[in-house]
Amino acid sequence: MSVAVKICGLNSIEAVAAAVAGGAQFTGFVFYPPSPRHLTPEQAAPLVRSVAPGITRVGVFVDPDDTLLDAVLAKAPFDMLQFHGSETPDRIGAIKRRYGRKTMKAIKVASELDLQQAKEFFAVADWLMFDTKAPKDMQNALPGGNALAFDWDLLRRRSWPLPWMLSGGLNVDNLAEAVKTSRAETVDVSSGVERRPGEKDPDKIRAFLARAQALGRV
Question: What does the alpha-carbon distance between residue 37 and residue 10 come to, in Å, rounded to a whole number?
Fold first, then answer.
């Protein structure tokens, strides 16, 4: 099974180059100040524009207002907008109509019950992402990128009317197990290809992408 990869939280030209050269199908750029991967529109613009044609450029947001979206999209040519906060289906639909971009909604998962939220977005999102819900007692938890995994078997027993990505705690060592268990055809990685929070490691990016490509040859 071929495994597509989104490298998320890119914030340097070296990391973008490694993702592009390594065969990433999606590149993600974060606009959320509490995140160590946060970019301003001005910082993001040259990075996003350096992504080769044919690779989906994804802007990642957490409950953004239109002012932020206007500022980002005026600078950077994104193909898809990802929402990782408490956005409602109505809000996602309104953004899609206003900006004419594809949308992806992240669903935070800790149990089977959390998966039920996904159906609310079937009519307005183009993609779903299943990420780990941070424990309530986790200090300084982010909406995503916490290097935590959930029970991948929860997804194995489900099917979805939209394409979807698996995210949360993935790295080169557990990628094969994650894909086999969840049956994911597309995965998202951020902290798993970093030296430290917010600092991407080009070597880890290349290794992760190579592992994903090797899975497709099995």
Answer: 7
pLDDT in tens, 194-214: 999 999 999 999 999 999 999
Residues present in the chain in total: 218
Task: Read off the pLDDT of residues 151-187 as tens digits, 9 standing for 90 and up.
Answer: 899 999 889 999 999 999 999 999 999 999 999 999 9
Active site members? 8, 131
Residue 149 identity (one-letter amino acid): A
185 with 3: CB under 8 angstroms?
A: yes
Q: Say how far apart CA 175 and CA 187 lie, in whole Å.
A: 9
pLDDT per residue as tens digits for the range 122-137:
999 999 999 988 645 4
Q: What pLDDT, on a 0 to 100 scale, did the predictor assign at position 134?
A: 61
The answer to whether 197 touches 160, Cβ cutoff 8 Å, is no
Q: What are phi and psi of 114, to 5 degrees?
A: -65, -30
Domains annotated for the chain, with CATH where assigned, are 4-217 (3.20.20.70)
What's the token pair of residue 124? 């307005």
Q: Quote the pLDDT of residue 135.
A: 46
Q: What is the DSSP string of 133-178?
A: PPPTT-TT--SS-S-----THHHHT---SS-EEE-SS--TTTHHHH
- If one counts every other C-beta atom within 10 angstroms of the C-beta of residue 68, the result is 16
